[in-house]
């Protein structure tokens, strides 16, 4: 027999404690916002306006067209010129420039003669991700510039190398803005982190402070205690999500094109999974410190293997397998589908199924480990 | 159940193993209804563990028993509803106020007329005007009183108090015992663990545990006889030198100093008498034979837990005969 009054008593108590524990409270509200801004603004895997130097051994209309095109792409900011390879290399090494564009001597003449001369784009590829977008864009820019310039009698030169253009067509995120992709993913990370951490700490705190003994010595049922303790944090998750969605919309201009119902259902499922996980952590950890450490240990694979940091398809097989057993992986897909691709409830069935399965496993283990005594 | 009629607690062969350590070993205990039962033993002897098993907080590895007529293995919920358990460590919420704590406990026990119950408890405590103070800011003595008030809220028939007076000043301890006696007079059974000897004297019954084994148990007044300690009272000059000499003497089990008096005790009466006669012959001190008291008995128990006891008492039986090596 579940006693509603005892359940409410625990919940009220938990709210009062939450209100008095300023640090935790600030963390629950502050951490999501901080992360949102950190990841949303600071981390950009498709950076633009990269400092670029030019080594011009020739000059002419084609060259100018190419440089104009590069500048217009927003990837390259021309910050100066160099007069030899050594100077260019030095600039790349000490980081004053990310790119050096080398226009070889007699470039204009060779183009017209159809000798297919090469423009060299020396890139600082120490962070391949940072330079990737710019490098991918360059050949398109050059081809376009040539096509624009080599008109009239010079048209034959342009046609000699099969005219190709690298179309960089980024679906669902046409501008290639990282934040559009990262922000919905971040919701999963933040929710998972705070839910697991805070539930496990809240439960372990009772054992550490000895108050669990008082609780167990009353006739309260485990379900009353656990639900009463957990529900306030569900509410917290709701608040976090609302704050998050508003910020995503207003600050990062992230669209929400899918079905709110689909989002709501998937999101609740995800919260429950994380609460169960926090609960499981609390049965393993002996004190709050350990609970915190285990929670952080658990969040790490969620950040690395869920497809949040690195594209899921690009990961090796074993990492994909590991990633598939993380609830965050599926929630990530779910939010991206719903927010960016306009998915409805039926579209997210595979994700919900996966999260449901994971939940079943976690809840089963957690309940088996739960002790109604102090043993 | 016959036992239920007379005993609030009756357990047989309770055993608890943590890892590969037997923390409580084949423990028997009978707590008569309405009595104040003292549960003594040094730190780490297994008192807390035993009490937790009795009220369903720990599952025994072996043994059985009843508490207020309910089986300790199968009916922990009923036991919890009728027992007031005061933990050794303060275990109310330090970040809740006094009123919030009492209110929470009252709700957990499903009390009717909760507001009034809490209000009365606050008035009894004399804390009505500080009801909104955080429990964590109370002094040790007040915390202890609050904890007692909390476990009395649901009017339990049995109180389990685990070292309730540890770290509390003497005045607060006296007040606390006055309250215990008042409760006992109302018919509440009290099992109280302690390692203060002066508190043992206040109990009707006493059990002494060491290394998880019960060494002795019985009515407080009978304990000295059960141990069979022979005692001589010694008065005179230069007691310190004499004390050292006697300690090294064969046949003397213990020398305890009470102010200007020595209590010299031994288990073997004949051997001790021989020592006494030899000393009396010297004529430096006055030696008088007296009945051993509880104090000596417990000093003896506490210092001699490694000894093997040969005790024949009504309530302790053979278990007490096996000491620890
Ligand atoms: N949960 C536990 N796990 C392992 N050992 C324990 C546990 N609880 C108590 N012990 C050990 O059991 C012994 C008896 O402890 P306890 O019952 O608290 O003694 P007391 O209350 O008489 O001081 C101690 O040595 C203690 O370290
Ligand atoms: Mg103890």
Keywords:
heterodimer, A: 375 residues, mainly alpha, abc type-2 transporter like fold, 2 domains, four-stranded mixed sheet, 4 strands, elongated, B: 325 residues, alpha/beta, Rossmann fold, Alpha-Beta Plaits, six-stranded mixed sheet, four-stranded antiparallel sheet, disordered C terminus, binds adenosine-5'-diphosphate, binds magnesium ion
Any overview of this molecule?
The complex is a heterodimer of chains A (375) and B (325). In chain A, 66% of the residues lie in helices and 6% in strands. Chain A is built from 15 helices and 4 strands. The radius of gyration of chain A is 28 Å and the shape is elongated. Chain B is of the alpha/beta class and 325 residues long. Chain B has 2 domains: 7-223, Rossmann fold, CATH 3.40.50.300; 230-291, Alpha-Beta Plaits (2-Layer Sandwich). Chain B has helices at residues 2-6, 47-54, 76-82, 98-108, 114-125, 140-152, 170-185, 197-200, 223-227, 239-247, 269-282, 294-303, and strands spanning 7-18, 21-32, 36-40, 62-67, 70-71, 83-86, 158-162, 189-194, 205-210, 213-219, 230-235, 254-258, 261-266, 286-291. Chain B is elongated. The chains are: A mainly alpha (375), B alpha/beta (325). Chain A binds chain B through residues 3, 5-6, 8-9, 13, 16-17, 20-21, 209-211, 213-220, 373-375, and chain B through 52, 55-59, 76-77, 80-81, 83, 85, 87, 89-96, 100, 104-105, 107-110, 150. The site of magnesium ion (MG) has 5 residues of chain B, from helix 2.
């Amino acid at each position: 027999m579940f006693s509603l009054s005892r359940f409410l008593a625990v919940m009220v108590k938990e709210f009062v404690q939450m209100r008095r524990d300023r640090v935790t409270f600030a963390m629950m509200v502050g951490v999501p916002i901080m992360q949102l801004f950190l990841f949303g603004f600071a981390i950009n895997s498709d950076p633009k306006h990269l400092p670029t130097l030019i080594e011009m051994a020739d000059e002419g209309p084609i060259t100018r067209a190419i440089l104009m095109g590069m500048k217009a792409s927003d990837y390259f900011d021309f910050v100066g010129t160099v007069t030899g390879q050594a100077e260019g290399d030095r600039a790349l090494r000490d980081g004053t420039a990310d790119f050096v564009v080398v226009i070889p001597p007699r470039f204009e003449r060779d183009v017209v003669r159809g000798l297919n001369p090469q423009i060299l784009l020396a890139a600082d590829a120490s962070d391949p991700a940072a330079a990737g977008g710019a490098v991918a864009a360059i050949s398109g820019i050059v081809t376009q510039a040539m096509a624009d310039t080599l008109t009239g009698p010079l048209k034959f030169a342009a046609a000699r190398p099969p005219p190709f253009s690298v179309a960089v067509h980024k679906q669902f995120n046409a501008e290639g803005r990282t934040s559009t992709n990262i922000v919905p993913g971040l919701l999963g990370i933040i929710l998972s982190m705070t839910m697991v951490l805070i539930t496990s700490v809240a439960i372990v705190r009772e054992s550490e402070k000895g108050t669990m003994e008082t609780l167990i010595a009353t006739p309260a049922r485990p379900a009353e205690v656990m639900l009463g303790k957990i529900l306030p944090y569900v509410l917290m998750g709701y608040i976090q999500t609302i704050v998050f969605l508003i910020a995503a919309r207003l600050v990062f201009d992230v669209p929400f094109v899918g079905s709110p119902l689909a989002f709501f259902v998937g999101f609740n499922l995800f919260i429950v999974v994380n609460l169960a996980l926090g609960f499981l952590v609390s049965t393993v950890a002996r004190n709050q410190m350990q609970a915190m450490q285990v929670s952080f240990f658990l969040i790490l694979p969620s950040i690395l293997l869920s497809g949040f940091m690195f594209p899921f398809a690009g990961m090796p097989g074993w990492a994909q397998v590991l990633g598939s057993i993380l609830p965050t992986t599926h929630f990530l897909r779910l939010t991206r589908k719903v927010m960016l691709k306009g998915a409805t409830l039926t579209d997210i069935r595979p994700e919900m199924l996966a999260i449901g399965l994971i939940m079943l496993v976690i809840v089963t283990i957690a309940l088996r480990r739960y002790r109604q005594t102090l043993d | 159940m016959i036992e239920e009629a007379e005993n609030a607690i009756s357990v047989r062969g309770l055993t608890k193993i943590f890892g590969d350590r037997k923390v409580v070993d084949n423990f028997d205990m009978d707590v008569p209804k309405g009595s104040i039962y003292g549960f003594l033993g040094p730190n780490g002897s297994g008192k807390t563990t035993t009490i937790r098993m009795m009220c369903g907080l720990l599952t025994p590895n072996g043994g059985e028993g009843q508490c207020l007529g309910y089986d300790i293995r199968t009916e922990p919920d009923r036991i919890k509803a009728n027992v007031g358990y005061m933990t050794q460590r303060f275990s109310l919420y330090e970040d809740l106020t006094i009123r919030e704590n009492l209110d929470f406990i009252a709700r957990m026990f499903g009390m009717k007329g909760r507001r009034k119950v809490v209000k009365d408890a606050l008035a009894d405590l004399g804390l009505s005007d500080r009801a909104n103070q955080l429990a964590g800011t109370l002094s040790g003595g007040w915390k202890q009183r609050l904890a007692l008030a909390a476990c009395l809220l649901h009017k339990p028939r049995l109180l389990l108090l685990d070292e309730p007076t540890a770290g509390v000043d003497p005045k607060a301890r006296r007040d606390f015992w006055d309250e215990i006696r008042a409760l006992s007079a109302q018919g509440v059974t009290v099992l109280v663990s302690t390692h203060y000897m002066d508190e043992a004297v206040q109990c009707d019954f006493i059990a002494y545990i060491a290394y998880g084994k019960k060494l002795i148990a019985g009515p407080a007044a009978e304990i000295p006889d059960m141990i069979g300690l022979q005692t001589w009272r010694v008065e005179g000059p230069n007691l310190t030198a004499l004390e050292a000499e006697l300690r090294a003497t064969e046949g003397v089990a213990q020398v305890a100093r009470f102010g200007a008096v020595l209590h010299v005790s031994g288990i073997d009466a004949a051997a001790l008498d021989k020592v006494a006669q030899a000393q009396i012959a010297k004529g430096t001190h006055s030696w008088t034979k007296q009945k051993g008291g509880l104090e000596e008995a417990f000093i003896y128990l506490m210092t001699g837990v490694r000894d093997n006891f040969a005790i024949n008492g009504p309530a302790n039986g053979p278990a007490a005969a096996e000491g620890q090596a």
